[in-house]
Amino acid sequence: MGSQFLDAQEDMLLLIPGPTPVPGRVLRAGSRPMMNHRCPAFHELLQSCTSSLKDCFATSSEPLTLTASGTGGLEAAIVNTLSPGDRVLAVVTGAFGQRFAEIAETYGALVDRIEVTWGQAADPAVVEAKLAGGGYKALLCTLNETSTGVVNPVQAMAAAAKAAGALVLVDAISGLLATPCETDAWGLDVVVAGSQKAFMIPPGLTFVTMSEAAWEASKTAKMPRFYFDLPIARKTLAKGENPWTPAVSLLYGLRESLDMIAEEGLPNVFARHLRLRNGVRAGAAVLGFEALASDDVASPAVTSFLPPGGIEGDAFRKVLRGHYGLELAGGQGPLKGKIVRFGHLGYVHEAEVLKGISLMAAALAELGQAVDPAAAVAAARKAMA
Amino acid sequence: MGSQFLDAQEDMLLLIPGPTPVPGRVLRAGSRPMMNHRCPAFHELLQSCTSSLKDCFATSSEPLTLTASGTGGLEAAIVNTLSPGDRVLAVVTGAFGQRFAEIAETYGALVDRIEVTWGQAADPAVVEAKLAGGGYKALLCTLNETSTGVVNPVQAMAAAAKAAGALVLVDAISGLLATPCETDAWGLDVVVAGSQKAFMIPPGLTFVTMSEAAWEASKTAKMPRFYFDLPIARKTLAKGENPWTPAVSLLYGLRESLDMIAEEGLPNVFARHLRLRNGVRAGAAVLGFEALASDDVASPAVTSFLPPGGIEGDAFRKVLRGHYGLELAGGQGPLKGKIVRFGHLGYVHEAEVLKGISLMAAALAELGQAVDPAAAVAAARKAMA
After folding, report:
1. What mean pLDDT is predicted for residues B256-266?
2. Do A196 and B35 touch (CB under 8 A)?
3. For a designed S-S bond to B331, which of A55, B43, B335, B360 qualifies (C-beta 3.0 to 4.6 A apart)?
């Protein structure tokens, strides 16, 4: 067959909210030869990664590393803490909030939803009032809604849930490391992250933290679980192993990316994501793009835009990909085809933002729009200064 | 942190039944930069892999590629075809047969077991007689029982199940490509394989085929499923996508390994595995190792041995690993600590078998056993000629 069709992808500038660009160091680490996943060196690998992950989640509990997409991590969060018939409150701010709620429903939870207009953040007061109705076993919420580019007020929602006696289950898949998430300090019971986001490694690993209250809930949770059984994962982690054969090459990459994150320092990682967000928004605004999210809730990980001049998002992306080698993401759900999503999380720096803005300007010009590329770049640079 | 503790692993001769050694071509392919998993080039990647996988499974249906360990594939097989309360018959010939049965039980199936002595193969006549009792919705069986090194008579068991009106669910995780598995011709309804076995890529992908009868069963199957929902996976595969973000780097590796398999030719792949099995058994016999499985059911993928002179398997492995850089696998369940398992599947050739036999001879001599390394190597070479 050959894989020549992949060659052109190697030169593509990839600015989507996952998979994010993987640093050369991490790609090379991931190409180490295989090892036995039941031997002392693997125990050291998994335990050292777990130790570093605690810093990333700001928790003293040991995050569990599962071989799955982030959606698998969300399923693990649900099935390890809940029973069929449990009432849960889901805060839905976009496609991924919907998904979290659907998983809970699939396994038999009774789900009430707070539906927030796509592009807006959840209002903690609304959440608090709804929780006060009582009887909720858990609150499901999203740290960074990838489909819209909005950061939700997880700390405030968690405080409301705690006061109402509900567990707090957080989808932090695209948010963790791009925006602060203080697992222990905020009282988050389950937090789920994914490898292909700000962790800068390929997709295939998901990380899940469990608070003591979540572990307690797991003892009586009756939804069926096997592959995603976290008490078994915790027990084998104590031996430095996973219950099932783990994605060894991705763990090699993880060890390297966790080193890079420690070298940069978490405060600098957060600051960089904010800078890039500001640069993308400023540059795109000059080009006439309309941001879906307002400044006060804008995501440091990804920004959604409507292109100027009535250009459809997917038509714009096709020109960007085909003529300029820039891959942006498209819309989901009601935004499908309409918007573009510019990912600025993970291994992305100022130069990638300026490249992205410049190529967007070029594509707009090709499509007949009047643009001032120099002004757009200057605005982006200023916002990132 | 650094990852210096991994460096010594790079020189380790890895002869375990998974993860198996990954060819350089595949490692390099897996280190390509990331791409969007929702773009035309990815569609081509997934569809071309799916087309090649059909040959590997000997099926005209399209195998589904899931991001998970093989155990996740087993869970997918169960939850997509069965409902709580369904009666199933599980043929248990070792640790992995046990696991398959446990997954079905976890999700509410009523499981009857045929327990076979570890190291022996299932007897189709016993299976047929038990199935004749009637009322079984499915038969669960294992093509290659990795914990013992035994190939089961799947074709005959499947025929018995078909006659009894039961679906045939096959764990072929470590068996596929190492030993024939004719999905369509044998009437297998669900067949599960794993990436880190004879497919020669790192762990993290599992492949699942579904017959028309299995798809029909999926329409009424009531076990809850979300991450492993195969009808959703089938629907998105028609667009060249996975429902959730797939392990992109492993798919790069898969494309390359499927090319290598096609270049070698499936008949040659099967013949090589048989040759290596014969070499391992002949060489180890000269050294005094006692094979757990008899010749007629011996696996082309992995061979289990009791070391000579009453040496415990794990003590022997520790010397092999620490002094000779050879990693063999240990025992599971009742065989834990006692046996060694020599993997000879995937990217393994005659030279690795001769290295393995030579290093086992050296370790035995160190442990005070009288050995004739030259005779052992000569026997292995003759058996592989």
Report:
1. 98
2. no
3. B335
pLDDT at residue A134, as a whole number? 80
pLDDT of the residue at B3: 83
Structural domain spans, chain B? 4-19+265-384, 32-262
Mutation target among B28, B86, B227 for the A interface, most CBs of A within 10 A: B227
Domain B4-19+265-384 fold = Aspartate Aminotransferase, domain 1 (3.90.1150)
Q: Which of A34, A107, A227 sits opposite B72 (nearest CB)?
A: A227
The string of pLDDT tens digits covering residues B209-243 is: 999 999 999 999 999 999 999 999 999 999 999 99
Share of chain B above pLDDT 70, in %: 100
* φ, ψ of residue A39 in degrees (nearest 5): -150, 165
Partners of residue A27 in chain B, C-beta under 8 Å: 31-33
- Determine the average pLDDT of the residues in A58-83: 98
Neighbours of B133 (CB within 10 A): 11
Spatial distance between the Cα atoms of B323 and B309, rounded to a whole number of angstroms? 20
A384 min Cα distance to partner chain B (Å): 26
Amino acid (one-letter) located at B360: M
Could you report the per-residue pLDDT of B25-83, keeping only the tens digit for each?
A: 999 999 999 999 999 999 999 999 999 999 999 999 999 999 999 999 999 999 999 99
Residue B1 has pLDDT above 70, yes or no: no
* Residue of chain A with shortest Cα separation from B37: A19
For chains A and B, count residue pairs whose Cβ atoms are closer than 8 Å.
243
Pick among B47, B226, B257 to test the A interface (most A CBs inside 10 A): B226
Q: Which residue of B has its CA nearest to A107?
A: B224
So what's the pLDDT on residue A1? 59
Model pLDDT, residue A169: 98
Report the alpha-carbon distance of residue A244 to residue A230 in Å, rounded.
12
Asked, colleague to colleague, whether B4-19+265-384 and B32-262 share their fold, the answer is: no
The secondary structure of residue A293, as a DSSP letter, is S
pLDDT band at A189 (very low <50, low <70, confident <90, very high): very high
Q: What is the pTM of this model?
A: 0.98
Neighbours of B2 (CB within 10 A): 10
Rounded distance between C-alpha atoms, residue A172 and residue A70, angstroms: 9
What CA–CA distances, in Å, run from A218 to A230, A232, A365, B71?
8, 11, 56, 21
Q: Which CATH architecture has domain A32-262?
A: 3-Layer(aba) Sandwich (3.40)
Please name the residue of chain B whose CA is at the shortest distance from the CA of residue A44: B5
Task: Tell me which chain B residues have a C-beta less than 8 angstroms from the C-beta of A70.
Answer: 244-245
Quote the minimal CA–CA distance from B224 to chain A in Å.
6
Q: Which of B14, B67, B202 sits opposite A68 (nearest CB)?
A: B67
The answer to whether A72 contacts B330, with C-beta atoms less than 8 Å apart, is no
| C-alpha–C-alpha distance, residues B373 and B115, integer Å | 38
Chain B residues closer than 8 Å to A33 by CB: 9-10, 12, 14, 21-22, 27
Taking an 8 Å cut-off on Cβ atoms, the answer to whether A203 and B67 are in contact is yes
